[in-house]
């Protein structure tokens, strides 16, 4: 049974239907260094079963399929799944795509060797529940990988304020410590943590109706010189630039978890 769509789900679908094609084509989402770090954290080998949660336009899913993994992708937004299928066809890789909600993954427990999500947790109203679902469908001994923006604690509030203006489907970006705590609460064992900064131009990822207010917010942050947003913003002849502060956190699921949950 498909879970009913919430008001927030509708906001996500509206946002990413509008941005599906530009998002899919934005070069930073396939940037080589961050992609290499993502693949290293996933540690996928041929014939592994992999699930990409909130897969968007299928950038990670297609990269993992190229390794020879059996990849499944799921996303709430049909327009994103359409872009993902086009990418798989274009890159001549096989990925099984589904439209669905990360809170209610339509897969049996212990189905996948790897369960990954990238740049999605800041859209989730309850990321802890999403992680619990990811753990449920991961086999004991498998790996769960979450990649997302993680602002510094002292910048979190202002970072969220800017991101909500840029993207109305944004909820809150967790700090690295908060993200790690979710893994601890889910009974996961940490495997690796890696942090990087992803450079972006403001004008590449903002709707016209939000441009003036967001530009003013960034200009104030740049002029103040204190980096209250925590994104190291600067302006040059090409426009306003900033960095997304990103963390990759990978955990392993206990080999005992299946027997414990079944006892």
From TrEMBL:
Gene3D superfamilies xrefs: Vaccinia Virus protein VP39 (3.40.50.150)
Domain of life: Bacteria
Domain Methyltransferase type: 51-146
Keyword Nucleotidyltransferase included in the entry's annotation: no
Entry annotated with the keyword Transferase: yes
Gene Ontology MF terms: S-adenosylmethionine-dependent methyltransferase activity
InterPro entries: Methyltransf_11, SAM-dependent_MTases_sf, UbiE/COQ5_MeTrFase_CS
UniProt record, GO biological process: methylation
Signal peptide start-end: none
Protein name: SAM-dependent methyltransferase
Keywords: Methyltransferase, S-adenosyl-L-methionine, Transferase
